Amino acid sequence: MLQIELTPRWRIGLRDGDVPLEADTLLSLLSAVQSGGSIAQAGRELGLSYRHAWGLVRRAEGLLGQALLQRGRGQGSHLTELGQRLVWADARVGARLQPLLASLASELESELGRSQRKARAPLRLHASHGFAVAALCEQLAARRLPVALSYRNSLEAVAALAQGDCDLAGFHVPLGRFESAAAQRYLQWLRPAEHRLVHLAVRTQGLFVAPGNPLKLRGLADLSRPGLRFVNRPEGSGTRFLTDLMLRHQGIDRRRISGYDHTEFTHAAVAAFVASGMADVGLGVQTAADRFGLQFIPLLRERYFFAVSTESLQRRDFASVWTTLQSPTFRAQVAALKGYEAARTGEVMRIQEAFEVPE
Predict the structure, then answer these.
(1) For strand 348-350 and strand 230-231, is the pairing parallel, antiparallel, or unpaired?
(2) Nearest CA-CA partner of 232 in 201, 255, 203
(3) Which end of the chain is more exposed for a tag (fewer CB within 10 A), N or C?
(4) C-alpha to C-alpha distance for 199 and 355, rounded to whole angstroms
């Protein structure tokens, strides 16, 4: 089965045509120093000699005009402020671009795969970006089941399913007070007689703040605090809709929130933005906060579903997909995600069983 991977690449050099710096290697080296506190150990991890590692750092410092590393006597090495900014910039680039590049790679796999004889038609999966969705794609790839993945916001994904443009559509709905209002966004596209829901996971959404919560934030009411910098999700996303529901419920004027109009595409990108110090608080799933070393303030739990047509459920080629979703291996992988619950992962239900809707 054809597999394509696209990754972002840095290029750092002068405009006079000089040989550019080994920027990707430099960033990996700086990240390893940040984690381990030793350039010698970082170099060994990357297969670089001590001389090569320091030569790379010195050349970068010459280009940038500032130091990237400082050595303390008997205390190893640590990053300067500029070194830290480079590492966090690389993290933001990856978090922001990974879903876009994954979607593009999937499209290329499908296009090029058509030229291969007897190529199996890929599963067309449209979904908002999430860690359990990524885990499913990994499992399907391991089982050599082709997937054409397109990251879309939840409403776009469900609309694509209703229009026949995808096979599985991922969307999420909060539990409790806001469930009915959120569900109505998707029920305009879903028909009880034509569609079924596959339960993927229950996950926790909340606020991302710096380790130790130095600003002593407690909840949404703090977002309008003067001087506090917020980073939001894009308009149309399920998390943005949820944020607005909670703000209206608490009577918080979004115009008083500094950074409300600054958006990042994924939960991970929001977490990277906060972790880099460019914002004080963001909202997203607990897994993203955990992966970027942030403190997490839980606000609510939500269910993530895949919507699917009843016709697709009967297709023989979908059997392997359902087997994967319901497998102990996949459930364990979902349950291992911080803030995720997998007790009902893979369960197929009627829309009426999930939400209160007329027959």
Answers:
(1) unpaired
(2) 255
(3) C
(4) 13
Distance of alpha carbon 354 from alpha carbon 359, whole angstroms: 13
What pLDDT band is residue 109 in, cutting at 50, 70 and 90?
low
Dump pLDDT digits (tens) for 185-239.
Answer: 999 999 999 999 999 999 999 999 999 999 999 999 999 999 999 999 999 899 9
The encoded tokens of residue 4 equal 């394509």
Mean pLDDT score, 177-183: 94
Per-residue pLDDT of 121-176, as tens digits, reads 788 999 988 899 999 988 998 888 888 888 889 999 999 999 999 999 999 999 99
Given a contact cutoff of 8 angstroms between Cβ atoms, the answer to whether 308 and 350 are in contact is: no
Q: What is the pTM of this model?
A: 0.82
Which alpha helices (H) appear in 220-349, and where do they start and end? Answer: 238-249, 267-275, 286-291, 310-313, 319-325, 328-335
* Angstrom distance (rounded) from CA 242 to CA 275: 22
CB 34 within 8 A of CB 135: no
CA-to-CA separations, 84 to 31, 116, 163, 191, in angstroms, rounded? 8, 46, 46, 50
Residue-wise pLDDT for 310-334, tens only, equals 998 888 878 888 899 999 999 999 9
Give the separation between CA 86 and CA 154, rounded to whole angstroms: 33
d(CA 11, CA 313): 47
Q: State the CB neighbour count (10 A cutoff) for residue 50.
A: 12
Alpha carbon separation from 301 to 92, 203, 206, 209 (Å, rounded): 26, 6, 9, 18
Q: Which residues of 253-289 are buried (b: 16+ CB within 10 A; e: fewer)?
A: eeeebbbbeebbbbbbbbbbbbbbebbbbbbbbbbbb
